[in-house]
Amino acid sequence: MKPRTRALLLFFVLAGACLAKSAPLTDNMITDQVAIRLASDQVVKGGGLKVDVKDGVVTLSGQVDEPKAKTRAEGLAKRVKGVKQVINNLTIRK
């Protein structure tokens, strides 16, 4: 690899890392990430769950099939970057 090409590649990698760190996470971005994780999880099957986010606090509502899914949904939401707290209002279907 030519030195100039290597320098340009390094520049773009570092620039991308700097931009990624400085971009603030909005509540909408957190909502999207939580919803994606819930919908794609085989235990939660959360496509129909409601996700609200206010100042990094996630509120989950809706119904799941079993207690395990309720616990898992909360854990998935907590692992999303920018989430400060999760309020789990999910109920179990009867």
| Beta-strand percentage range | 15-25%
Query: What structural class do helix, strand and pairing data support?
Result: alpha+beta
Q: How many E-type strands?
A: 3
Architecture (CATH level 2) name: 2-Layer Sandwich
How do the strands of the widest beta sheet line up side by side? 1-2-3
Helix fraction by DSSP (H/I, runs of at least 4): 40-55%
Structural domain count: 1
Element-by-element helix/strand order: HHEEHE
What is the radius of gyration? 18 Å
Q: Residue-averaged pLDDT, rounded? A: 86
The shape, in one word, is: elongated
CATH topology: Histidine-containing Protein, Chain: A
Q: Number of helical runs?
A: 3
Distance between the termini: 63 Å
Low-confidence stretches: none
Biggest sheet descriptor: 3 strands, mixed
Q: What is the level 1 CATH name?
A: Alpha Beta
Provide tags for this entry.
single chain, 49% helix, elongated, alpha+beta, 94 residues
What does the model show?
- This protein is α+β, with helices and mostly antiparallel strands and 94 residues long.
- It has one domain (25-92): Histidine-containing Protein, Chain: A (2-Layer Sandwich), CATH 3.30.1340.
- 49% of the residues lie in helices and 22% in strands.
- It is built from three helices and three strands; from the N terminus they run ααββαβ.
- The protein has helices at residues 3-22, 27-40, 67-78, and strands spanning 50-54, 57-64, 85-92.
- A three-stranded mixed beta sheet has the order 1-2-3, covered by helices on one side.
- The longest helix is centred in the N-terminal third of the chain and has 20 residues, at 3-22.
- The N and C termini lie far apart (63 Å).
- The mean pLDDT is 86.
